[in-house]
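pasting for the record
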Amino acid sequence: MQTHATTPLYAGIDGGGTKTRALVIAPDGHCLALAVGDSSNINTAGAAVAAANLEATLRDAAAQIGVPPNFAAAFFGMAGVNDSSAARAVTELVAGFQTVRFSGFKVDNDTRALHAATFGVGSGIVLIVGTGSKCYGRSADGREWEAGGVEYLVSDEGSAFDLAIRGIKAALRAIDGRGPATALRTMIFDALKLSEYGQISQRLHQDSIEHPGQPMTKTEIASLAKYVTQACADGDAVARKVVEDALDSVIETVTAVARKLEFAPGGLRVGITGGVILNEPGATIFQERLQLALPGAETLVPEVPPVAGAALRALALGGAAVTPEVTARLRASLPSGA
């Protein structure tokens, strides 16, 4: 391999609602740097903040190598890029970077990076269930379909945000008598530093704990999901129902994509990522509910993370060969935290 100063650099970016990861690799697949920055989802962070976080993360990655931030190609797998107008908006932001340069780059939804990390150029369905959620599939003949994932106001099924909102509602129902008693009542109200039922409106819409005088952000609300999963793990029946209902809703997106692309349930492969369905108790509940909806479906946890899939897409975009040897070298040299 050439020295770092002369080696073409390929960058894969996994831009999420909570963190942004940028992985830089050489043409042979060897990982050179990994940088982690703040949110770059334009729908939650805003365009200016998202752009600044993306540029800063890529600068950080190049600084780790000790070279200027000039890249032969980059693939941006971005949460919040759900349509062509959003893709154009982020493309314009990236093109406007003042300190980072690219010979070529592409912006797409983050599910494309996960798909490449899971299946390479093969077929299958991928599902992200973290702060937000989205499902995407590609068939053997190249057809694509996606479901869910059009942000938290109307979608993000099964996500941490969805769990948190459902948990808050269950707590409120327990307090005012519409629903059964649940540990969520105390856990969530203590977390939000509330003593009265009606204070929830003020906290959500006007007076965030992290940002007083402002509404709670999507990420802040999503952080409450841990109380729902903890109560579920502790045996709280209401919390268990919240988790089951939320995961049923995200499994509906998998079912819709499988039906549209004509995947047979018995041969269906689903690549999964995101804390909600990788960590307990959500992991077991997800598997149970998936088998009820799509008997015989197989779930795969990608051997490399989405940011590595984005890096492979960057290689292909730049005209470099993506061989099994390149993929194996990338996997072997991945830094911790990727």
